[in-house]
Amino acid sequence: MNFIRERAAKDGMQEAETIGETVERNGVTFVTATVSHDRGTPQVVRLANRLDGPVWPPRLGDETAPAWTDGTWEARVGPDQALGVGYATPAPPLADGGPLSVVSVTRATRDGGTSPEAVLASLDDWSPPSDALDR
Amino acid sequence: MILAVCGGKGGVGKSTLALNLACELDAVAVDADLATPDLPRGRGPDLHDVLAGRAAPLEAVESVDGIDLLPCSRSLAGARAADLTELPKALELVDRQFGRVVVDCPAGLARDVGYQIHGADAVVLVTTPDRAALLNAVRTRHLAGELDTPVASVVVNRATSDEDREIAARAEGELGATTTLVPRREPLAESFRAGTPLRDHDPDCGALTAFETLTERIEESERQITEDAEPA
User: Fold this and answer.
1) Do B230 and A14 touch (CB under 8 A)?
2) pTM score, two decimals?
3) ipTM above 0.90, yes or no
4) C-alpha span between A19 and A38 (Å, rounded)
5) pLDDT tens digits, residue range A4-51?
6) What pLDDT digit, counting tens, does each position of B206-224 carry?
7) Partners of residue B144 in chain A, C-beta under 8 Å
8) How far is CA A105 from CA A36, B146, B149, B153, in A?
9) Do A12 and B85 touch (CB under 8 A)?
């Protein structure tokens, strides 16, 4: 069993934290973790499996847990909330670091639309005006 | 919560409002007007140093006359060396430490303001009751919408007549956020020239009531914004 704590930042923007553990049993690694962040507004957090094998996400009957798509977990995490994440994989635990990496943390919005990066790129270049002289 | 005080047009009283809001909300005031800063100067490292990687954001926060301030200096070289993309991270670090940040944004709608609005959790739009300022406020509101940053509240500054009250009511409908009218008062202008919040300068000034109303409305918006984005 190994206890892991991962903090990650993407694009120098916002951070999220996963705290969890891995247990290996009969050649299967079980990962359990909680995800949280310290922003004041809800964030969409994406996590990726770092272990070298397929993700076996939780299933209920025929339905796979909706947060998982192709080895990537994505969900809204509210302020002061710690959300549980769990999955299994045939890959062994990593010797260095946790099984989950934080891919991105972005502010949760109610709908899609243009990405902030595209909007920022469309704005006029900023440069200090020439009359802003040292005083 | 990070609040960006912006409005597009220069000279509408953004910095005066930012300083007073920081005082009322017990927040850190960040002077993000990189080329023409207006908030009181500091003595230590400033925002230019932070955005050039020469100082950590928390190192640059200092207490000036009882206000927590991340100042900016009037240095063209400093402004040129500043990396805007570092701003959101710097704001976030200060927010995490102090719990609330009020960002005094420059005029205009170029990329510097874009990064400030993007890095904020909500914006406070400031305008005066004239056509040019109101149009700029609408444009700023549009940009904030594109960047998914909600408008916490609107301020119509330097109101002098009953007609301004009507303009504020229309601005409220147009901009989609509670609008507070701040009357033109000489002590307010004086207090800002002295670099002090109105509460410390002249606690009996009528404009202070407007700031108190505004503070309540912003706090209410903050609760609303947090709830709105809550998972269903």
Assistant:
1) no
2) 0.72
3) no
4) 14
5) 555 554 444 457 777 778 888 888 999 998 898 888 778 888 899 988
6) 899 999 999 999 999 999 8
7) none
8) 10, 18, 15, 26
9) yes
